[in-house]
Specification:
Helix content: 25-40%
Structural class: alpha+beta
Pfam family, one: LON_substr_bdg
Number of helices: 6
Protein name: LON peptidase substrate-binding domain-containing protein
Radius of gyration: 19 Å
Distance between the termini: 30 Å
Largest sheet: 5 strands, mixed, barrel
Length: about 240
């Protein structure tokens, strides 16, 4: 069964359970925000987030700039966006005024993964027909979860030391393997293609297995570096569309 969702392409990957703050100022996403606000209060205000593979998060501006729902994503929309994304539920949404005109401040939370079946760019913003993806545990997820938790704590300490920072307190990590796998995927300092690969993992065990290799490799690399810029592990910056 499929569902039709408004689509919000970003230059980052959203994972289930993670919080997404958004500062909305582009016309197409302001239209999306207005439509979400117009929904009944008891309605589920959902939209889809997909990472941009080849394109720009903010559409070009200027007299000759392309306009419309697909602006900035090039001639092949399917090639510009990753096919696996995450649905988001609006937690708060409010209109704001600023020097550049009215915009919106939104906070949403990732809920479930989906696969894009088809894209529609005929309206003011992108729409997609999507199918929800299951979340199977896979073989050995529990054992892998314990190993990943240990490797992640070692990675945090190594990263904090290389950044000449200290960890204020031991971070409490979830004991559910799937939840842990998404937290680690979001908090590890890696590029979008690697995050996307973790989002697309067939099951939790496969994701944890990839993360275990990744954490061990990154920890070893950090250990050979004299210093790194300070990095906030779990705080994600506000995305400006």
């Amino acid at each position: 069964m499929t569902e039709r969702l408004p689509l919000f392409p970003l230059g980052s990957v959203l994972f289930p359970g993670l919080v997404l703050p958004l500062h909305i100022f582009e016309d197409r996403y302001r239209a999306l925000a207005r439509d979400l606000l117009a929904m009944p209060e008891d309605a589920s205000r959902r939209f889809g987030v997909v990472a941009i593979r080849d394109g720009r998060e903010v559409a070009p501006t200027g007299p000759d700039a392309e306009t419309g729902a697909a602006a900035g994503f090039g001639p092949d929309l399917n090639a510009a966006l990753y096919p696996i994304g995450c649905a988001a539920e609006v937690a708060s949404l409010a209109e704001k005024g600023d020097d550049e005109g009215d915009g919106y401040e939104m906070v949403a939370t990732g809920t479930t993964r989906f696969r894009v079946v088809s894209l529609d760019a005929t309206g003011p913003y992108l729409m997609a027909e999507v199918e929800e993806l299951p979340e199977p545990a896979g073989d050995g997820a529990g054992e892998l979860s314990a190993q990943v938790e240990q490797a992640f704590r070692t990675y945090q300490k190594q990263l904090a030391g290389a950044s000449e920072r200290t960890l204020s307190s031991a971070q409490e990590l979830p004991d559910q393997p799937t939840v842990l796998s998404y937290l680690v995927a979001a908090a590890t300092v890696i590029e979008v293609p690697f995050r996307q690969r973790l989002l697309e993992a067939a099951d939790t065990a496969s994701r944890l297995r990839e993360e275990l290799k990744l954490l061990r490799r990154e920890t070893a690399v950090i250990g050979k570096l004299p210093s790194l810029p300070a990095v906030e592990l779990t705080r994600r910056p506000t995305s400006h569309n």
